[in-house]
Amino acid sequence: MTIAHDFAYLRPATVPDALAMLADHRGAMVLAGGTDVVPWLRDDAITPETVVDIKDIAGFDAIDVADGVLRIGPLVTFSDLIASPVAAEHVPALVEASHTVASVGVRNRATVVGNICSAVPSCDAGPPLLVYEAAVEVAGPGGERSIPVLEWFLGPRTQALAEGELVTGITIPLPGAHGGCYAKLSRYRGEDLAQVGVAVLALPGNDYRVAFGAVGPVPFRAPAIEERLAGGGPGDADPAALDALVDEAISPIDDVRASKEYRTHMSRVMLRRSLAAAAARLDGGGPPYGEQVI
Amino acid sequence: MIRLTVNGIEHTAEPAGAESLLATLRDRLGLAGSKDACEQGECGSCSVIMDGELVCSCLVMAADADGSEITTVEGLAPAGELHPVQRALVEAHGVQCGYCTPGFAVAAAHLFEREPSPSADDIKEALSGNICRCTGYGAILRALTGLAGEEP
Ligand code: FES
Ligand code: FES
To answer: With contacts defined as CB-CB under 8 Å, which chain B residues touch A78?
Structure first.
């Protein structure tokens, strides 16, 4: 048991209290599920003087819909999303992604907001939130602001949150009728980071949204692919042209989990299969949500 | 100082810094059944039930567990007895070196508590966070599908 450094552990009960603590203690770390933060603290990967645990803030664990917007509180875990009928109805591809996150014991603690705050390139919540055009709701010293997820990821493990700010939720405009899909390539089920993640939304009128994770420094949308697909069925685009667009969009690395070539090949395959699944789901068919297409 | 109810018994402890619930259980409360293998949430050997939910105790800060109710492998069955999942693991030879076994037992007990006759897929999903370095998965799965009255 090596405990290298100590810190003050605070548990605010309200957002104003939390903001006051973050203002008083520069460099404080916010703690929610802790599945990333606890090992970082223990390994001294981060050494804050203060840890602000937000678990006592009322309402932060809610998933609700109001005025055409789905809101996911910062304490909502991946298990909560999987169990939520509201999430299943409105954002099934995000729920599908939640099933692929680690294992039951981790999903019971790991939060969706924490996943995008850690902002690792392979984060499973990234691609689905990009295709659902979610926004990150933030409160801070300067008041409240809403950051589109498209502008949220700045680099590996870096996001747009400023000093003293706290994420108060994720909002998603209800997408209406759609078919979605999240495909994840990993070595085994249960606690593995994505080697490639692909999220697709098929909207009525042959309108598609496509996002990738783990094949670039941040999760990203692929507008050139979306433009090529627009107006046709998922199988109408010339496969070779689509593959070329995938190659242009991604910038995979070689690492212990997969080679660059493998990631490239699988990105192409997974895009094709996710498109087919999303389009079929839009029409009421296709594989049931949760059944991986690879 | 924190208060924990572990296997029905109240304890107090003074964890330091980011000390994990796992470290508190093992090193301060003497409950060494939960194992410390990866400390990363990858292996499930530290699985405990916290306020009714399965968690990796290596990923829970002890300070954050203040006031919670914990069941560890030591509390699955009364002293001297075995929980049905433990008996099934013994009978089906689902134990080799045994290091992963407490984690499997806790995760499986938690599953059977909520779902007395889980399907083989339910069992695989519930145990997907548990790694056995001796790779005795076949026997573990046979033990639990047998208990559920299912074909593996
Ligand atoms: S020691 Fe906790 S998951 Fe491995
Ligand atoms: S029995 Fe040895 S690690 Fe599973």
So the answer is: none
Q: Check if the beta carbon of residue B103 is closer than 8 Å to that of residue B47.
A: yes
CATH number of the CATH domain containing B108: 1.10.150.120
Tens-digit pLDDT profile for residues B34-71: 999 999 999 999 999 999 999 999 999 999 999 999 99
Q: What are the chain A neighbours of B39 within 8 Å (beta carbons)?
A: 39, 42
Helix axes A239-249, A260-282, angle to 10 degrees: 120
- pTM attached to this predicted model: 0.95
Ligand nearest to the CA of B40: 1
Domain ranges within chain A, ordered by starting residue: 8-53, 63-173, 179-282
d(CA A31, CA A201): 32
Instruction: Give the contacts of B11 (CB within 8 A, at least 6 positions apart).
Output: B3, B4, B5, B29
Rounded-to-integer distance, Cα A71 and Cα A136, Å: 10
B95 in ligand 2 pocket by Cβ < 6 Å?
yes
> How many H-runs (helices) and E-runs (strands) does chain A carry?
11, 14
Which value does ipTM take for this structure? 0.94
pLDDT in tens, A134-150: 999 999 999 999 999 99
